[in-house]
Design goal:
Oligomer: single chain
Number of helices: 11
Shape: globular
Largest sheet: 10 strands, mixed
Order of helices and strands: HEEEHEHEEEHEHEHHEHEHHEH
Bound molecules: ligand PBG
CATH architecture of one domain: Alpha-Beta Barrel
Radius of gyration: 20 Å
Strand content: 15-25%
CATH superfamily of one domain: Aldolase class I
Helix content: 25-40%
Number of strands: 12
Distance between the termini: 39 Å
């Protein structure tokens, strides 16, 4: 029955009617708040491209985690900035490393908050690549797996509730699963950054973490932005290897991939609303070209509508505040 019998506007007349038929739910319960933690004392260092986000010493990370708890955000995702970097990324799997210490401190102070940890070498290698580099400048896949597994085990031993490998080496989910199980961490879930694209939108993160590759780029391990079939294949391989949840990253230029991954796996899907996506909204809002609150909630709802169960976002605290207003 077309117009005039059908009038789509009837159900849009009032806020209550719109609420009744809303298809996508956005609540703080779906959000994960990323934290950049660095060694050092009592400092908060602003990140220029990401207003509102800071590099935090462990004490401030604990404080920030407390704010997340108070706002109803169930999880944080930790990234570490070590005091020193080397070729073997030894800071990544040091039991006294920054993420390990921060995990213990946050779990001590806020046991109910989920602590997820990013498992990757790029913040810890002197050259900034996500794996071990051979003398001929290649990122060596199989050698890297060993170090990633050591890293994941040290995070789990420190009390991490889930580990999230973001390196894009082949076979890393299987390697992590086998070694976590062998060390008694069979209950630690793996949230795999399965479809991680080689993206310009990681720019502010790399400045924050000092992880821009010293030579070359990440296109020999991160995915080509043009490929969605391949993304589904990557994800299904991680599922076979034992991933408990899978991730698409970035989010906004890849909403179709989120949808396809959800349909192909039926697993919990996470989407990472990355640093450059945050920086764009912040910059446009600061210059008065966008209403920040409306834009952020629209973007996060869009990511959920595309099929993401979990949304990792630097907007988490603001969004949680706005959603409870
Ligand atoms: C580490 C990692 C990156 C991000 C998350 N984990 C950077 C990269 O691959 O260069 C990006 C997150 C963001 O931009 O917010 N491999």
């Amino acid at each position: 029955m077309p117009f005039p019998a059908t009038r789509m506007r009837r159900l849009r007349r009032t806020a209550a009617l719109r609420g009744l038929i809303r298809e996508t739910e956005l609540s703080p319960a779906h959000l994960v708040y990323p934290l950049f933690v660095e060694l050092g004392t009592d400092s908060r260092t602003p990140i220029e491209a990401m207003p509102g986000i800071e590099r935090l010493s462990i004490s401030h990370a604990v404080e920030e985690a407390g704010e997340a708890v108070a706002l109803g955000i169930p999880a944080v995702l930790l990234f570490g900035i070590p005091a020193e970097k080397d070729e073997q990324a030894s800071g990544a799997y040091d039991h006294e490393g920054v993420v390990q210490l921060a995990t213990r401190a946050i779990k001590d102070a806020h046991p109910e908050l989920l602590v997820m940890t990013d498992v990757c070498l790029c913040e810890y290698t002197s050259h900034g690549h996500c794996g071990v580099v051979t003398p001929d400048g290649e990122v060596a896949n199989d050698l890297t797996l060993e170090l990633l597994a050591k890293t994941a085990i040290s995070h789990a031993a420190a009390g991490a509730d889930a580990v999230a490998p973001s390196d894009m080496m082949d076979g890393r989910v299987a390697a992590l699963r086998a070694q976590l199980d062998a060390e008694g961490h069979d209950s630690t879930p793996i949230v795999a950054y399965s479809a991680k694209f080689a993206s310009a939108f990681y720019g502010p993160f790399r400045d924050a973490a000092g992880s821009t590759p010293a030579f070359g780029d990440r296109r020999s391990y991160q995915m080509d932005p043009a490929n969605a079939e391949e993304a589904v294949r990557e994800v299904l391989l991680d599922v076979e290897e034992g991933a408990d949840a899978v991730m698409v990253k970035p989010a906004l230029a890849y909403l179709d991939v989120i949808r396809r991954v959800k349909e192909a796996t039926r697993l919990p899907v996470a989407a990472y609303n990355v640093s450059g996506e945050y920086a764009m909204i912040k910059a446009a809002a600061a210059s008065g070209h966008l209403d920040e609150r409306t834009a952020v909630l629209e973007v996060l709802t869009g990511i959920r509508r595309a099929g993401a169960d979990i949304v990792i976002t630097y907007h988490a605290k603001d969004a949680a505040r706005w959603l409870s207003d």
